[in-house]
Design brief:
Length: 308
């Protein structure tokens, strides 16, 4: 396994505007904290064209306020909030933030992770130079293809290029992109390591099979305190409508089998996220949910906060 963190690149860009009226009971007023803004795969829930029970009964989404996967990280001392992913549900997720984001980190160019950028354009927010932090191929993709290129031309967003395994300092945080194997039609794909004053987080919503990654997930769990990892599909029963070769995410059952030999402490760091609309883990009362928790792992839920 190659070292994950070996260089330091200092980046500070804060253009935050403070919004009043926001509070979290599970955080310390002056300390950085992370908030889960969504846990569903790109297509959301209900999912377009789906006639299965999971989508026909939309009350599940309504009761649990299920949104597409995103995180925010807030540093109250400097009135800074960072948004991880610009999802199709950015309007409602934006409304949950205590500040206008001082930066938006994108993992890759699949719809659930960057489509929300459109709302920053002149037809909607008309944002002014919001930093959008991306890898080189993602930067080129946004600059060279409409309508994203218009966001750049009108200076709604300011693209800032990141480098694999290079730390970026923002306030009290160090944020490091880590390349992961995925279907990279338009851009590369990264996970992010988010290092706070006391806690470190891995955010890895999309990856192909763990065996295709040059890093060892079990070893990485030793380096972090929380790991939000790909849980797109629970098992094979969800894949009866598309070939697995087209969507080779690690099944949750596969991930649990891979990590089963680990200690209870390490397994407890895992928070499964990015669940497809068919994934029974979205239902807090499902047998799948109970089984995952019994194995010693966690399932991310919207609204959860974590001190950093």
């Amino acid at each position: 396994m190659k070292p994950i963190f070996f260089k330091v690149f200092i980046f500070i860009s804060i253009i935050a505007i403070h919004f009043a009226g926001y509070s979290q009971s599970n955080v310390t007023p002056d300390k950085p904290y992370l908030t889960v803004l969504g846990t569903v795969q790109d297509g959301g829930l209900p999912h377009i064209g789906c006639q299965k029970t999971c989508c026909a009964n939309a009350s599940l989404a309504q009761q649990n306020s299920l949104k597409v996967t995103a995180l925010s990280v807030t540093q109250p001392k400097i009135n800074s909030t960072l948004l991880f992913e610009a999802t199709p549900e950015i309007i409602s997720q934006w409304g949950q933030l205590p500040n206008i984001p001082s930066g938006i980190f994108l993992t890759h160019a699949h719809m659930g992770h960057y489509a929300g950028l459109l709302h920053l354009g002149r037809e909607a927010l008309g944002a002014k130079n919001i930093p959008v932090l991306v890898m080189p191929r993602m930067k080129s993709f946004l600059k060279q293809n409409a309508p994203w290129s218009q966001l750049v031309e009108l200076e709604n967003i300011n693209l800032i290029e990141l480098e694999d395994n290079v730390k970026n300092k923002i306030g009290q945080l160090y944020i490091t992109p880590i390349l992961v194997p995925h279907r990279d039609e338009f851009s590369e794909t990264v996970a992010y390591q988010i290092q706070g004053p006391k806690k470190t987080v891995l955010f890895l919503p999309d990856i192909d099979k763990w065996s295709r990654w040059e890093n060892d997930l079990a070893e990485i769990l030793k380096e972090v305190d929380y790991a939000f990892i790909d849980a797109t599909f629970f098992d094979e029963s969800e894949l009866n409508y598309r070939p697995i070769e087209e969507i080779p995410h690690p099944l949750v059952k596969e991930t649990i089998s891979l990590l089963q030999p680990l200690s209870k402490k390490l397994k407890n760091k895992v928070f499964f996220i990015h669940m497809n609309h068919t994934n029974p883990m979205l239902d807090r009362k499902s047998e799948a949910t109970k089984w995952v928790l019994k194995q010693g792992f966690n399932i991310a839920r919207e609204g959860q906060t974590f001190k950093l």
